[in-house]
Specification:
- By secondary structure, this protein is α+β, with helices and mostly antiparallel strands.
- It has a single domain, classed as 2-Layer Sandwich (Pseudouridine synthase), CATH 3.30.2350.
- The chain has four helices and eleven strands.
- The longest helix has 12 residues.
- It starts with a helix and ends in a 38-residue tail after the last strand.
Length: about 270
């Protein structure tokens, strides 16, 4: 009896949009609100869902391998890379350690930073009990240096929120600290729109996610070493929909064969 005929049906549907896949990695979009990996809450998470998807798609008898090499905060959406092999995971982790894994974000801040371009460098400390992150003096035990570069792309005053202007900011992450972007902009007086943890003005409003989106990734392929570059625009929802920014998004320079510039259509939330 030929079992192959039984497995030809519709392939399992990916749990999240997958932009790119090969033998070593996935590049995909994590929706805002989905955990990167399992935690004590028991809520759905990206790694568990992708393991189940890979197991079903590839008909694996045991557990499918998915290697988590970087994370996005639960309320933050955007591009992530997951490894499909332990070799791929090791090489990607090495690229992150050596500064070859470049992460670019878009954020909407409340109020506009005085300097249109700049570098923010702070020392941050994470409270192990509450998981809240604080800006602290440089000499604080347990404090870790956090740095990013930013550029203000556009500003606007929403019709329904006359008291505060908003700024669309492009961010190149230099270090990858927990809650780093959210805390660094809060510490200069411009918390992210919708950030209920670090933005004082959003404590009492309806549940919102911080306006932060992992918009572009650039890194060398773990085995081929060719440069890969991916972009994904944020969903067409407030506050992103306040800006017509598709024309003004910067493109990091990518050279060499194999460079990829993949755009995906706008996603529903």
């Amino acid at each position: 009896m030929n079992h192959h005929h039984q497995s030809t049906g519709s392939l399992p549907r990916p749990p999240v949009p997958i932009l790119y896949e090969d033998n070593h990695l996935y590049v995909l979009i994590k929706p805002a609100g989905l955990l990167s990996q399992a935690d004590a809450s028991g809520d759905p998470d990206l790694v568990t869902r992708m393991k189940a998807y890979r197991k079903e798609k590839e008909h694996k008898p045991g557990e499918a391998y998915i290697g988590l090499v970087h994370r996005l905060d639960r309320p933050v959406g955007g591009l992530m890379v997951l490894a499909k092999t332990s070799k791929g995971a090791a090489r990607l982790s090495q690229a992150i350690r050596e500064g070859e894994f470049e992460k670019y974000y878009l954020a909407v801040t409340t109020g506009c930073p005085k300097q249109k371009t700049g570098t923010l460098t702070h020392t941050l400390w994470k409270d192990p009990r509450t998981h809240r992150v604080f800006r602290v003096p440089d000499t604080t035990p347990g404090g870790r240096r956090a740095a990013l570069k930013y550029e203000v792309l556009d500003t606007m005053i929403p019709k329904d929120q006359s008291e505060a202007s908003l700024a669309l900011v492009h961010i190149h992450l230099i270090t990858g600290r927990s809650h780093q972007i959210r805390v660094q902009f809060q510490s200069i007086g411009h918390p992210l729109w919708g950030d209920q943890r670090y933005g004082e003005t959003f404590r009492v409003t309806a549940k919102t996610n911080p306006a932060l989106w992992a918009y572009a990734l650039r890194f060398p392929h773990p085995t081929l070493r060719t440069p890969l570059y991916f972009t994904a625009p944020p969903p067409s929802l407030p506050p992103w929909s306040f800006f017509k920014f598709h024309q003004m998004l910067p493109h990091p320079n990518v050279t060499g064969p194999g460079a990829q510039d993949l755009h995906v259509p706008d996603l529903d939330s």
